[in-house]
Design goal:
The chain has 393 residues and is an alpha+beta fold. The longest helix has 15 residues. The structure holds flavin-adenine dinucleotide.
Amino acid sequence: MADTADIVVVGGGVHGASTAWHLAKRGAGKIVLIEKDGIASGASGWSSAIVRMHYTLESLVKVTMYGREMYGDWKNIVGVGESGFRQVGFLVLFPDGEIKHGQEVVKMQQRLGIDARYITVDEVGDIEPRLLRDDVAAGAWEPNSGHADGSTVANSFIAAARELGVDVRVGPEVLTLVSEGSKVTGVDTSEGFISAGTVVIEAGFRTSALLAPHGVDLPITPVRHAIAVVERTPDFGDIHPVVSDRVARAYYRPERDNLAFLGEHDPMRGPIDEEVEAAKPPILDEEISLLERFVHRFPSQELASKMRGYTGVYDCSPDFQPAFGKVQALDGLFVGAGFSGHGFKLSPGIGKIMSDLVVDGSTDMIDVHPFRIERFAEGDLLAAGEGYNRSLS
Ligand SMILES: Cc1cc2nc3c(=O)[nH]c(=O)nc-3n(C[C@H](O)[C@H](O)[C@H](O)COP(=O)(O)OP(=O)(O)OC[C@H]3O[C@@H](n4cnc5c(N)ncnc54)[C@H](O)[C@@H]3O)c2cc1C
């Protein structure tokens, strides 16, 4: 019997899972999601899953607002599973040169109704007195932000999608995207052909290889990122907020009650590695550099214990902003990839946008045109790529 679907979604990370659930909620037809390894086996399973709304681009702030609401009210909105959201707050530390930009971002956030504040160094100390503040010029504070969990979110979206009838297949690999003329007709998988008039590819770094035979160029660089893990000393006290240290160019995110995950700000700082599926430990120098920055910022943590770290791969686009939406070259083809190390928090909102685009042909959440995949070939990169927002997680 022919294997047919109305929509095939490729990829079982947070993006594919969110899109499949949103599509099912819209009653978009027979949906098959295909994941070759395991749900959240890619970047999503290694994600620090920081949830913040501090973005240079207003459109992405709106996308994060949708996500923040969903993570914080998962039971009522999604109804199955959980997000692992912890509202520990998000604190940005600015160096001198970024004060003006930080102020502008906070002003824009406030205009959109977000509880965000631009704060003095003394106020940074009121929020987190254990931080060294000598080299900090100012801060920004989002009390309602924090972190969630990538694997939990992807698996919860999948469980909820299954309840709505999505056929989730873990194991088969999509080998090629199939088209006739300028129209998508399905996918060839390691377990046979699936006919579908609509295909949504959200396969992280591997998205590019599925598009290339159709003449669609999506330049993505896979950059392996180290996460150092420390156990804080027992006298540390209450957990700290998520700290985005733009002076030392690192972030520190609490895990459970006694651990901290330490990560690098610069998306390109790490080895380029196409073996994105492989689980690899961090290079020792990367871990030590992250530990040094953490101890500099939290001087009481000189005796914190280093635990075993891990790595995950960012799918970096040329402007470090995602590419999503309908692909102009082929009718029925939609793509969401190139999240460049900051796609977790965007996944609820992008899933909603993708479902709107598939079902209605448009979305009222944001103007999606600037995020089109064709912008790379056209040389029309997003301006937020250079400098500031390039290096926030
Ligand atoms: C170490 C690390 C820390 C991060 N921290 C944060 C953070 O704090 N906040 C934040 O917002 N973002 C963060 N990110 C980024 C975020 O995790 C990613 O942007 C997001 O998880 C990407 O999700 P995805 O679904 O697009 O990709 P993935 O999770 O990579 O999923 C793609 C899936 O597609 C599958 N696949 C690929 N090819 C095929 C095929 N041919 N057939 C079938 N299946 C296929 C893969 O197996 C994979 O499971 C971090 C990422 C890393 C690596």
